[in-house]
Amino acid sequence: MPDLLTAFLTHLAKERDLSPHTVAAYERDLGELQEFLGRHYGDPNWQWGQVDRLALRAWMAQLARRGLAKRSIARALSAARSFFKFLHANELVAGNPARAVGSPKIEKYLPGHLDRRQVDTLLQALQTRAQEGRHRDVMALAMIELFYSCGLRLSELRGINRADLDLLAGQVKVRGKGRKERVLPVGSHAQRALREFERKRDEVIAKVGPAADRQAFFLSDRGKRASLSTIQKAITGWLAQVDEGAGLSTHSLRHTFATHLLDAGADLRAVQELLGHASVSTTQIYTHTSVERLKQVHRQAHPRA
Q1: Which CATH class is domain 3-100?
Q2: Which among 40, 182, 224, 277 is annotated as catalytic?
Q3: Could you state, in order of their start, the residue ranges of all structural domains in the chain?
Q4: Catalytic annotation on 277?
Q5: So what's the architecture of 116-299 in CATH?
Q6: 177 is catalytic
Q7: What integer pLDDT is reported at residue 280 of this predicted model?
Q8: Residues 113, 153, 158, 175: which is the catalytic one?
Q9: pLDDT tens, residue by residue, 19-39
């Protein structure tokens, strides 16, 4: 990467303390922009200071022709805006041309989620399987209970350390986007499942010995922190049994958490804090799910619907 991009990525990681995943996304988007501008200008010695809004609009048009979703294009433009803002703040360019480029309008969608009957069916099946005592089943039950109880992101659940859990107080500390920490209440059902898994965790540590990761809470049967792919595979396998073909994922449990809270009358701002959203507008998408549910009830029950 050119020095200016390297400096910007270092700024994101060290000064803004963004997660490695987010920094990697910036690096990917800006690397593609750099390659495009080299072709666009046809000059190996082009400079960031000569980039204008027309060049950036041409880049966005190319992304659209490649079939990228509007959400992905908007994310790439956001990365360009942040980069040029950094350059302008350090007096390396005269202005921020990306600010003059409009972001594509992103379609709102109703996120996939489970209804309460499906949640009950899923957890009853898991509890039955976990009673057999296999490590993977006890861990799957604890994970799904915690996902549903707290509305966690996949990365947040994986990153939980033993010291982050206070089962006596019924709470857990998680690290969200931008490494922001928040403390969340843990429901009684999730607490019981977590205590059951803690016993399995202790057995693994005793068996593996010093090689076990004593810091992480969710350990594989080999004593290592459970990987993202392992967690995703385990959860989606169970979700597929509830609604095969629906494409449900760990994030569907986060959607389910938010939808069920709002359906029960929870305050939107409170749900925003629980989810760790920076803006309430991000949380508002779950109100659309609730409205759709009400419309369905109205169509089914009202004589003149």
Answers
A1: mainly alpha
A2: 277
A3: 3-100, 116-299
A4: yes
A5: Orthogonal Bundle (1.10)
A6: yes
A7: 83
A8: 153
A9: 788 889 999 999 999 999 999
